[in-house]
Amino acid sequence: MINLPLLPLLIPLITGVILMLFPNRLRLQRSVSLVSTFLTIVATIYLVYSVRKDGILTVTLGSWPAPFGITLVSDMLSALLVLTTSLLVFFVIWYSMYYLSDLHQRFYYYIAVQFLLLGVNGAFTTGDIFNMFVFFEVFLISSYVLIVLGGKPAQLRESLKYLLINVISSALFVMTVAFLYGVIGSLSMADISQKITEINQPGILSVIAVLFLIVFGLKGAIFPLYFWLPGSYQVPPTPVLALFGALLTKVGVYGILRTYSLFFSHQQQFTHQLLGWLALATIVIGVIGALATRDVKQILIYNIIVAVGVILYGVSVMTRQSLEGAVFYLIHDMLIKAALFLLIGVMIGIAGSSRLKDMGGMIKDYPLLGWTYFIAALSLAGIPPLSGFIGKLLIVRGGFEAGDLVGPFVVLISSLLVLYSVMQIFIRGFWGTPKTYSGPKRHLTKQLLAPALALVAMTVLYGIGTEAVRPLISQAVDPLVDPTLYIQAVLRED
Amino acid sequence: MKNPIKKHTNDVILESSTTFITFIIFLFAVYLFFAGHYTPGGGFIGGLVTASALVLVLLAFDIKTLRQILPIDYKQMTAVGMLISVLTASGALLFNKPFFTHAHGYFNLPLFGKTSLHTAMLFDLGVYLVVVGVTMTIIQTIGESD
């Protein structure tokens, strides 16, 4: 089965197209989406297994030889990210069936989610920089559909901003790729990497590296390009917010991780130092935002920014250990952010508002929700043995190992403050005098809690099972540390 | 030519020329579609030209008339087109070849003689349907909101 890397893209694509044939038959839409996403997960698990067994898998579309055709490359990093994405989308679809009103679901919701899955999986899998742009567009267009879902005035206002920012950054993306093509004369990522090594990355390529940082930074919300995120992410319905928060910023992070390890790894004292300082500034800004607000959605949205900073700090250090930490933390953060967003969605459904002052004493009537949230919050902050711990530990150790003293301390202090910010939700929302709630989704708490609980359980397993996951992460980092592995897998003669 | 369609405005010249120009444009679109195999043309251009023929009908008459002539849901048309394209490309999976690998060959057809047949044509047919579907959906949506 040489097309194995393609399956996680092809299944959502065909599903999305088939769903377009009957947009109004909701029960069928739901069941087809769930079944096909489950098939995607099964295919991806087999993909991870194959990559573990046989090393990096590649397929070059249309049987063109490698540097000319578009190659899809599944190394362990992309396979693991695709697996995480497919899992998240499955749980979010499950959650949306109860959370969203029929009217919401009728407006092409499941179709947009399938295309989002296609775009994100594609961006993780592709081995061609222009093709990566195409997949960015695929998931961006789906995200435009999802962000206006519901059509409230605030949504229209924010989606206009979101659209504008992303159109500009997409234009910049194409221009940057064009610059790179102008200098290198290739679009295949393996080929580019090889040629940059040959000419030893002259100054012009460092400029292009910074342009890539701006492009991916706009998607990934790093300092100072994060300004659009808190507003835009406030407006869509919670399941959509969970998808955006868990997936879209992470694709930007993945873009930086890939280009900064594969392409621009020769002038690290400039490019990686810049990335490092920006990452630390991102952490600081995110923490300030998370502490300053009393809105449960906003607290978590600013925590997305903190996590992006932590991961990118790990990337900027560029030692084996810090990269392992970054990859570990990236997967952890995708899972836990989705879980937390789904949980606060339940809280908002009960209280009918996202402000903390309208909540209180929920633990009396909803103990399971309270304790699940508690575990998820501890996991986010990185309390051992939960999954946030090992990633941060590796990043911090990597930082110290590289002789940096400021970065690891910022990461450590930020963990403490992140814990404080998410505990605010626990203290003010679950403790205190119980209120009588009249939120619209009170009666659905049990159904909504099930997918969230399953996700939290997965993050707990991910944390406890570190020993079993570590070899996979280690294999994922191999091509980041040594790009020749990636190049040889793509450009081999056979 | 007998025109069963009720007229709203009095653009006699536009309306009567549309009734036959539309077919010429449509034929030209079909020509472009097949020409695309080796020369300029193809599904995308063919689709656009077809859409322009339909838009001409739309301009000369109105949306109701177009619906009466072609009672097609253009959103479904887009979906069907995409399905054809994706399935053509995935056909390679059955033969364990990389996705998008096409097959082609020369066949002796009656009437046409020796003809080159290529699965890329099926893919292009999908593109054609998508382009017509999307263009008409956009134009109808804008037209209806007036």
UniProtKB/TrEMBL annotation, chain A:
NADH:quinone oxidoreductase/Mrp antiporter transmembrane domain location: 127-416
Predominant cellular place of this UniProt entry's protein: membrane
Location in or out of the cell: Cell membrane; Membrane
Biological process according to GO: ATP synthesis coupled electron transport
Keyword presence, Transmembrane: yes
GO CC terms in record: plasma membrane
Lipid bilayer topology: Multi-pass membrane protein
Pfam families: Proton_antipo_M (PF00361)
Keywords: Antiport, Cell membrane, Membrane, Oxidoreductase, Transmembrane, Transmembrane helix, Transport
A GO MF term: antiporter activity
Keyword Transmembrane attributed: yes
Similarity comment: Belongs to the CPA3 antiporters (TC 2.A.63) subunit D family.
EC number(s) recorded for this UniProt protein: 1.6.99.5
Name of the protein in its database record: NADH dehydrogenase (Quinone)
Membrane-spanning parts: 6-24, 31-49, 69-95, 107-124, 130-150, 162-184, 204-228, 240-262, 274-292, 299-318, 338-356, 368-386, 406-427, 448-465
Upper taxonomic lineage: Bacteria, Bacillati, Bacillota, Bacilli, Bacillales
From TrEMBL, chain B:
Keywords of the record: Cell membrane, Membrane, Transmembrane, Transmembrane helix
Domain of life: Bacteria
Key word Hydrolase present: no
Transmembrane segments: 12-34, 40-61, 82-100, 120-139
Protein family according to the UniProt entry: Belongs to the CPA3 antiporters (TC 2.A.63) subunit B family.
InterPro entries to which the protein is assigned, alphabetical: CPA3_antiporter_subunitB (IPR050622), MnhB (IPR007182)
Protein name listed in UniProt: Na+/H+ antiporter MnhB subunit-related protein
PANTHER family xrefs: NA(+)/H(+) ANTIPORTER SUBUNIT B (PTHR33932), NA(+)_H(+) ANTIPORTER SUBUNIT B (PTHR33932:SF4)
Topology within the bilayer: Multi-pass membrane protein
Keyword Iron-sulfur: no
GO CC terms of this entry: plasma membrane
Compartment(s): Cell membrane
Domain Na+/H+ antiporter MnhB subunit-related protein stretches: 13-137
